[in-house]
Each structure stands twice: as structure tokens, then as C-alpha cells.
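Open question from group meeting: does this chain pack into something compact, or does most of it stay loose? Before anyone orders reagents, we agreed to write out a predicted structure and look at it together. Recording both the input and the output here so the notebook holds the full record.
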Amino acid sequence: MDYELMMNGNVKIGQKAPEFTAMTTFGEMSLNDYKGKWLVLFSHPGDFTPVCTTEMIAFTRAHQYFKNMNTELLGLSVDSNSSHLAWMYDIFCRTGIQISFPIIADRNGQIARKYGMISNDVSNTETVRNVFIIDDKQIVRTILIYPLNVGRFIPEIIRIVEALQMVDCSKGSTAANWMPGNPIIAMPPKNYNELENRIRYIEKNRNGISWYLSFNNPPEICEKTKEQ
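C-alpha cells returned:
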């Protein structure tokens, strides 16, 4: 096996998320604890850093939105659990906000390297700012990588989770700039007969531009499932 891949991970969209068990600010936890739920696993380069502090606060404020989508949050850095706890307490003392999700203390970088969170071009020890969206079957569905000096936009992460759950439910796709409640791109026809039917459907309903691009309203069952 290539040494660089072995050390820095080669996690790809569509593969099973690598298993782990680790100490967190909420006690020992493993990936298996999140079976049946979606998970946003994100890393930060270090505690008591300004950009990451704003993100911890922003994620906490948005945590209920994620919970409403059957989604949990899990942070990670290579700092110690004691450092994490001190940082959480400092945020609470200064803002009154209690961080509502666990943070992994990955002191030896084992999890970070397994997920490819450490870029040797940036640092040999600090995790870069990754986001992994893992579905309820523990499949990696989205990977985002941010530079150290640009904060993550939490509403976009929420939108991606909502879009992934919608396409799973509807078996369609989402268009550029899709937002919850917007129409869904219909699956393309599989044969010529379906193509002709799709053209007639578009002409009648004016809901597309051609046989390969038409839209349907989002199914209500997806919204009901999300609310439950």
C-alpha cells in the first residue's frame, strides 16, 4: 500500500466511514454510537483559536436544526481532552453558551490520519478544517475542506444534509441553488418510450426545458419523515 495513502487516509464519497473509538468531552464514544443517525464530523486545527471558536458557537446555535434532521454533530482535533474541556468552559464563561456536542481528543492523530484530516503540505500534526457528512448507514456522502482562515458556513452544511436526505427520499436530484421546498429534478428517462412520455408531460405541465431536465414537486412523505 502507498505510504502516503496509508498515513493520510483515502476516504472517498460513497465508501463506509472508517470506524473509531475515542475519548471525547462527553466520554468515550465510537462511530457505531451514531448508527441510524446522520453525522456531521468536523475537525479544527487547535483549541482556543479564533475562527474555530466562532464555529463552535455557530454549530451549537444550529444544533437543534441538525437534530430535527436526525443528524448529530461531532468535532475533532489533536488537542487533549483537558484542553477541549478548558476551551468549552472558557466559551461558556465568556458567552453563556454551552457547547452541546462532543469533541474528540485525537492526541495521536490516528483518527485524523484515517480520515485524511492532516495535510503534510500544511502541517504534520494539525488537522485541516474538514467536514464529513455521514449518513444513517454510515456511508460518507459529502467531504468539505476549508482553509485555516475561512470559517465554515453552517447554513450550507444544513442545506447539504437536507438535500442529501431529499434525494434519497425522492430518488431525484437537486438543482443549483436548491433550497428546501424547491422542486426536485426528475430522474431521466431510461428508454425512448419514456422520453416521449416525458416530453408530453413537460409540454402539459411546463415543468422543464427538455426530456433530460424536468422537475417534480418534493414528495410530502420526505417532509413528514424529517419531522418525525
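Observations to bring back to the group:
The beta strands are 21-24, 27-30, 38-43, 71-77, 103-105, 129-134, 140-146, 184-185, 208-210, 213-216.
The chain has two domains: 3-152, 171-227.
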